[in-house]
From TrEMBL:
GO terms for molecular function: hydrolase activity. This is HIT family hydrolase. It comes from Caballeronia mineralivorans PML1(12). A motif (Histidine triad motif) lies at residues 104-108. The keyword Hydrolase applies. The lineage of its organism: Bacteria, Pseudomonadati, Pseudomonadota, Betaproteobacteria, Burkholderiales. PROSITE patterns: HIT_2.
Amino acid sequence: MSQENCIFCKIAAGEIPSKKVHEDDEFVAFHDINPAAPVHVLVIPRKHIETLSSCTEADAPLLGRMLSLTARLAGELGVAYTGGDTGFRTVINTGPGGGQEVYHIHAHILAGERPWRRMG
Ligand code: AMP
Ligand code: ZN
């Protein structure tokens, strides 16, 4: 999908409403519209990158910051791993084979009481 028609580019630009939990110069995070778990947040770069398979070594710093932001947001959402039964799942679906539906790279943060709905 091109950048012009990309729903996540539009969310990042504020052209489509979302329930944002974080916004900075490089990333936006918002609640998934169709949550598969009690906590289901998506973390996206503002830069339109279609898939994890589109990434090169040059994207490593961005991917690193995205993953570290994911952990920080999990903490802010109250679902970090702090021992016992706590913790969260991070998922990046890639291509039809990986169940990707929106072709703007995003990391899912999933957490909370089971059962969770199966994704993809
Ligand atoms: P994926 O299958 O990894 O591409 O996941 C795409 C996710 O985006 C799904 O979990 C959708 O529920 C979610 N989604 C699609 N449109 C929106 C939207 N407008 N706002 C928030 N989440 C969305
Ligand atoms: Zn996009």
